[in-house]
């Protein structure tokens, strides 16, 4: 059949042109992939050269042997250098970290980081915030405050971390109320950021707690718990006496001293089983030998979690030895209570 007659059929012609177009697109995609791989390969080689050039100098600075004269930092080396510098800072403390700070200042990287923070793309701003936090650069404070209020959680939390590094006391005054309000921020991140400002944060939280409404109080108490902050007795007593179950639960989790032990004992009989669970755990932390009978009574609670936490609390009581617990287990007449205590003892038996 002649070729002209073949292409005169519209269906065959459409199929041919569709195939040619697909082939052309495949070739273009292949060329693009090859180009991207070549670009990535060049970038990786350039980064490897930068690291080979600067890693020995940074290592020398860490041990206090930085050269008197530093080579210029090429523009292509800046990002690999900063990533390496931040990585090293994350594992250093004290004089070694300050030596790296001085090294970066000699290269003018504090100014570069402030420029990245103000005008860079997202990744550059994140890196700039990390650098300025490690440098404790007070001049970056206003820009970091602006970024801390961004909707981007990663960017805002990184800026908040940098603020704490720069000035823990001033940052605690600003951050503690914000962390109470921003429930979209995970408590683990909040605690990690405030860890270096736990003292100032404790003072701010103690001042905030009496004025908070019951909707915000549980989160504030959980922040105090995550930071292992010992709250003022008056604040804790008020929270333990609250009619709101979430507040009472959060307050029980914050009990670290025996000053409120009478309220904790009373809450062992609370109608809500979640409260009884936390009361048992709190008694395990601060209780006395005489509290063993109270915890034994909870071993007969209708809720499994209450029985389990009561058994754990018995093992945690500092005044009870292992032999005392074993004798107590043998004396129990309630089969469910005895089984629960035996299970927890087995879980805590030394390997």
Question: What does this molecule look like?
Answer:
The chain crosses the membrane at residues 12-35. This protein has 351 residues and is mainly α. Among the domains are: 101-166, Leucine-rich Repeat Variant (Alpha Horseshoe), CATH 1.25.10; 255-351, Leucine-rich Repeat Variant (Alpha Horseshoe), CATH 1.25.10. 72% of the residues lie in helices and 0% in strands. The chain is built from 20 helices and no strands. The chain has helices at residues 3-8, 10-62, 78-89, 95-106, 109-119, 122-135, 141-148, 153-166, 168-181, 187-194, 198-208, 217-226, 233-240, 245-253, 261-267, 273-286, 292-298, 304-316, 322-331, 335-347. Helix 8 runs parallel beside helix 10, helix 9 (168-181) packs across helix 11 and helix 12 (217-226) packs parallel to helix 14 (245-253). The chain is extended, with a radius of gyration of 31 Å. The model has no long low-confidence stretch (mean pLDDT 85).
> How far is the N terminus from the C terminus?
86 Å
Helix content, binned percent: over 70%
Rounded Rg: 31 Å
Query: For the record, what is the CATH homologous superfamily label of the domain at 255-351?
Result: Leucine-rich Repeat Variant
* CATH fold naming of the domain at 255-351: Leucine-rich Repeat Variant
Largest sheet: none
Q: Which stretches of 5+ consecutive residues score pLDDT under 50?
A: none
CATH architecture of the domain at 255-351: Alpha Horseshoe
- Helices, by number, come to 20
